[in-house]
Write a structure and sequence with these properties.
single chain; about 290 residues; alpha+beta; Butyryl-CoA Dehydrogenase, subunit A, domain 3; 4-stranded mixed sheet; 4 strands
């Protein structure tokens, strides 16, 4: 039995290195097709295409957001402050104060925290790229496991609801002939009172016509067939979202027809419960890959 994946999931991993830290996060939500967005630093822009391909190889449907955070460590302990930058900041500060004497001067802490004040640790591009792709593979494995766990839970819930629909169908099916016969008798009595004895042929034709309109055995049979197909698709597993979404439409159509043809409060109540259950299933199916 193949796994069923939810389209909703999250996984992330941050690793520490001598040169700094690298973090990768993946978030997925339901979407009609596969859509991957990538956000990361310019230092890793050349890996965007490769990372997109790696994600597409593991995720077939859904909206995927990939975030890459790269923080290169400053070397305060091994290198002096950037002298040229200090001189440039001093020049700019004098120019600003000359125009705005009320402006405050930069503090030592502000100067030392200025971007580029200390030399950043460097890492070879190939080594950084390899680390990024290895880390992405680990995050993708965690994401797949998370989506599979939620998919397994959805599979169980959908199968239980499908069996409940079939139980309702089996419960109401034996009552249909009796309900149709009772309706025929009532209709015949009313037509007899309205038309009289001389219209017996027309009366019988009208009874047969209306009886055929309220007979729902065919709808119940199709309902059962759709339920069995839902259970078969769930058992098979894999990318089942679109197939199940179509089956939900078919189930809803049969439940609507059952309700519109109903001539008794019991079948109307059954049709309503069917539609509520199918709607619950449809909402869950929207999250399946």
């Amino acid at each position: 039995m193949n796994a069923i994946f939810s389209m909703t999931g999250y996984a992330g991993l941050t690793t520490e290195h001598p040169w700094g830290s690298l973090g990768i996060e993946l978030r997925t939500v339901n979407h009609r097709y596969l859509e991957v967005t990538w956000r990361g630093p310019e230092d890793l822009r050349q890996l965007e295409g490769t990372m997109r391909e790696a994600i597409a190889a593991r995720v077939s449907r859904g909206k995927v957001e990939c975030r890459v955070n790269l923080n290169l460590r400053d070397s305060q302990g091994s290198s002096p402050p950037n002298g040229e930058l200090l001189q440039q900041l001093a020049t700019w500060q004098d120019q600003v104060i000359a125009v705005h004497p009320q402006a405050s001067r930069l503090s030592v802490a502000e100067l030392l925290a200025w971007p580029g004040m200390f030399r950043r640790e460097t890492v070879a591009g190939d080594a950084l790229g390899e680390q990024c792709l290895r880390q992405l593979d680990t995050v993708l494995q965690e994401l797949s496991a998370s989506r599979a766990r939620e998919g397994a839970s959805l599979r169980e819930g959908l199968a239980a609801k499908a069996r409940h629909i079939d139980a309702l169908r089996i419960e109401v099916s034996p009552r249909i002939p009796e309900l149709v016969q009772h309706y025929q008798q009532r209709l015949a009595q009313r037509l007899h009172e309205a038309l009289g004895e001389e219209e017996q042929d027309r009366l019988r034709a009208e009874v047969v016509l209306y009886a055929s309109r309220i007979d729902v055995e065919e709808e119940l049979a199709r309902l059962g067939a759709h339920v069995q197909e839902v259970l078969r698709v769930l058992e098979r597993g894999g990318a089942v979202g679109k197939r199940l979404d179509f089956l939900m439409q078919e189930l809803h159509r049969e439940a609507n027809t059952l309700g519109s043809k109903s001539v008794a409060s019991s079948t109307s109540a059954t049709a309503l419960e069917l539609k509520v259950t199918i709607e619950q299933m449809r909402e869950q199916v929207q999250n399946l890959e």
